[in-house]
Amino acid sequence: MFVVQTNMRVHPTENTNHTRKRNKKYHCLFCGEEVEQLPRHLYSIHADEHDMIQILASTDSSQRSRLLTKLRSMGNYKLVFFKAA
Ligand SMILES: [Zn+2]
């Protein structure tokens, strides 16, 4: 059974028109660590995971991007779901 939170808020970035700040954090699906640059973390720490092997083997950049987005969403979802439980 899923818990729907209607008051859920997403932390926004603090970008301005001239600078890009990477202070938005993402949660790793595999270790639960909070990281700023998730693809770098996944490539360096979790390169031996099944999902990462599929991403690393992919030669299509759009497919690789789609799979990374899926892992990022699943990591953030896992954090919200297990915090609520
Ligand atoms: Zn991790």
Which helices and strands appear, and what pairs or packs with what?
Blueprint: E1 26-27, E2 34-35, H1 38-45, H2 50-57, H3 61-84
Antiparallel strand pairs: 1-2
The protein binds zinc ion.
Explain this structure to me?
The chain has 85 residues and is mostly helical. It has a domain of 59 residues. The chain is 47% helix and 5% strand. It has 3 helices and 2 strands. Strands 1-2 form a two-stranded antiparallel sheet. Strand 1 and strand 2 form a beta hairpin. The longest helix is centred in the last third of the chain and has 24 residues. The chain is globular. Bound molecules: zinc ion (ZN). The site of zinc ion has 7 residues, from helix 1. Zinc ion (ZN) binds next to helix 1.
Spatial separation of the terminal alpha carbons: 10 Å
Give the number of DSSP strands: 2
Low-confidence stretches are none
Portion in beta strands: under 5%
Give a short account of the largest sheet: 2 strands, antiparallel
Regarding quaternary structure, what we see is single chain
Radius of gyration: 15 Å
Strand order of the largest sheet: 1-2
Roughly what is the average pLDDT, rounded to an integer?
84
Shape: globular
- Helix count, per DSSP? 3
* Ligands (ions, cofactors included): zinc ion
Q: Which secondary-structure class do the elements indicate?
A: mainly alpha
Order of helices and strands: EEHHH
Helix content: 40-55%
